[in-house]
């Protein structure tokens, strides 16, 4: 990462303010190796106890991380993770109510969110209540798809051509082998990208009500094994994932298509309520939106939005989602438009919502309960859950943008931080 001319001298002087060059050289040099130490693997109580010994915990510390009932927690959580030692407790609050008029989500929802950030739940509650006061937001799941992108390596482009011809003639069999691994994984599309003597095969699936990363990995492996065994040209090597699926990262490819579920959500707020609840006008919100567009372009972000990640991280952790998927899920577009009657049109478009209501962490005790609170646990509820998540993102965008427009953003954080500090 480059260093600007103006701060180059400061950067160098700060580095050597604490250490001499000789000290830095000594600290960064290779040290003597240590004997390989194996963490005791296993899901039994004996292995669990051995792992705890490695941490040199006090009795009180051990009680805190194990919940005081190590055997019961081991049975509940131990199979969800390797090398289990305990749990990390994060505060969960409730935001809402938010009324959602969706293609799947219908009604009033109180949404559980996990966070340690002051002012966040208050902000989402404010936005949710405003949306509910006007009769709710509209939400719609436009499309869905989860991909895995293997890469096949060949000697030259001639082999690539022969392989592509074979692949086009045997596409149905490749799909059949992929789909044979699951009742729910269904191939929606396959896209090919050629780079020199390499072929990237992006296989896009629907995965029922599961988030689906593991499902599509297993399905894709089966397809690749069939290809390797039966292709007219055997690849020299293949990789199950070639970093082109957008898994755990924001990408322009996913932004333009879909990864997970693509959801849109909109609401119109009358001018009276804008002033009464948010202390702003539609023109002020529109102008702020334009400013953030230009700022986003200059910083090179994908899309344009305020803080989807706050809603996503909070809901994902509370409801048993893969928290690392916030990286791709938080890509999207927020839009504010002042209408002729001075009301505000507000919308969010999230093309990469990675959510599931079965599998993964959704079956853990508290996570299952929080999904049940939303009426979104189990089969048939993933699209409903996605629309609820999108609605909360919209609520958060309205609230944070209005707070900045009305110069209350810093004030709100100060107030809620002081409350926390007083209690502490």
Structure write-up:
The structure is a single chain. The two termini are about 40 Å apart. The chain contains 17 helices and eleven strands. It has three domains: about 55 residues, no CATH class; about 210 residues, 3-hydroxy-3-methylglutaryl-coenzyme A Reductase, Chain A, domain 2 (Alpha-Beta Complex), CATH 3.90.770.10; about 90 residues, 2-Layer Sandwich (Alpha-Beta Plaits). A hairpin with a 5-residue loop joins strand 10 and strand 11. By secondary structure, it is an alpha+beta fold. The radius of gyration is 25 Å and the shape is globular.
Helix and strand topology:
Elements: H1 5-18, H2 21-28, H3 45-54, H4 59-66, H5 70-77, E1 92-102, E2 106-114, H6 120-133, E3 137-148, E4 151-153, H7 157-169, H8 171-179, E5 186-195, E6 198-206, H9 213-230, E7 237-239, H10 252-256, E8 260-269, H11 271-278, H12 282-299, E9 303-304, H13 308-318, H14 326-329, E10 332-338, E11 344-353, H15 365-373, H16 382-405, H17 409-423
């Amino acid at each position: 990462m480059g260093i600007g001319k103006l701060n180059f001298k400061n950067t160098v002087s700060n580095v050597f303010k604490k250490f001499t060059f000789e000290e830095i050289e000594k600290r960064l040099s290779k040290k003597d190796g240590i004997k390989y130490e194996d963490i005791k693997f296993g899901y039994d109580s004996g292995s669990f106890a051995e792992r705890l010994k490695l941490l040199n915990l006090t009795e009180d510390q051990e009680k805190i991380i194990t919940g005081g009932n190590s055997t019961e927690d081991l049975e509940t959580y131990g199979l969800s993770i390797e090398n289990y030692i305990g749990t990390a407790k994060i505060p969960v609050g409730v935001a809402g109510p938010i009324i959602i008029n969706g293609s799947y989500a219908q009604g009033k929802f109180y949404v559980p969110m996990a966070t340690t950030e002051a002012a966040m739940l208050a902000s989402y509650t404010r936005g949710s209540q405003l949306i509910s006061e006007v009769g709710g937001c509209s939400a719609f799941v436009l499309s869905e798809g989860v991909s895995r992108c293997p890469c096949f390596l060949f000697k030259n482009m001639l082999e690539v051509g022969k392989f592509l011809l074979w692949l086009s003639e045997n596409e149905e069999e490749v799909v059949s082998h992929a789909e044979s691994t699951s009742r729910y994984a269904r191939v929606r599309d396959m896209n090919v990208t050629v780079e020199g003597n390499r072929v990237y095969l992006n296989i896009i699936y629907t995965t029922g009500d599961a988030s689906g990363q593991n499902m599509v990995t297993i399905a894709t492996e089966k397809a690749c094994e069939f290809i390797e065994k039966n292709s007219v040209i055997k690849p020299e090597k293949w990789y199950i994932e070639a970093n082109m699926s957008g898994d755990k990262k924001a990408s322009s490819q996913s932004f333009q298509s879909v990864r997970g579920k693509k959801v849109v959500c909109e609401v119109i707020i009358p001018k009276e309520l804008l002033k009464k609840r948010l202390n702003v006008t539609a023109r002020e919100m529109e102008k702020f939106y334009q400013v953030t567009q230009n700022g986003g372009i200059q910083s090179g972000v994908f899309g344009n939005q305020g803080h989807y990640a706050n809603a996503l991280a909070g809901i994902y952790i509370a409801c048993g989602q893969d928290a690392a998927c916030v990286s791709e899920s938080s890509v999207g577009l927020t839009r504010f438009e002042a209408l002729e009657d001075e009301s505000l049109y507000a919308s969010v478009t999230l093309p990469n919502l990675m959510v599931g209501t079965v599998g993964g962490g959704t079956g853990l005790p508290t996570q299952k309960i929080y999904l049940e609170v939303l009426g979104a646990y189990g089969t048939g509820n993933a699209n409903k859950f996605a629309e609820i998540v999108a609605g909360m993102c919209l609520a958060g965008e309205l609230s944070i943008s209005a707070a900045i427009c009305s110069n209350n953003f810093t004030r709100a954080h100060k107030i809620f931080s002081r409350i926390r500090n007083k209690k502490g």
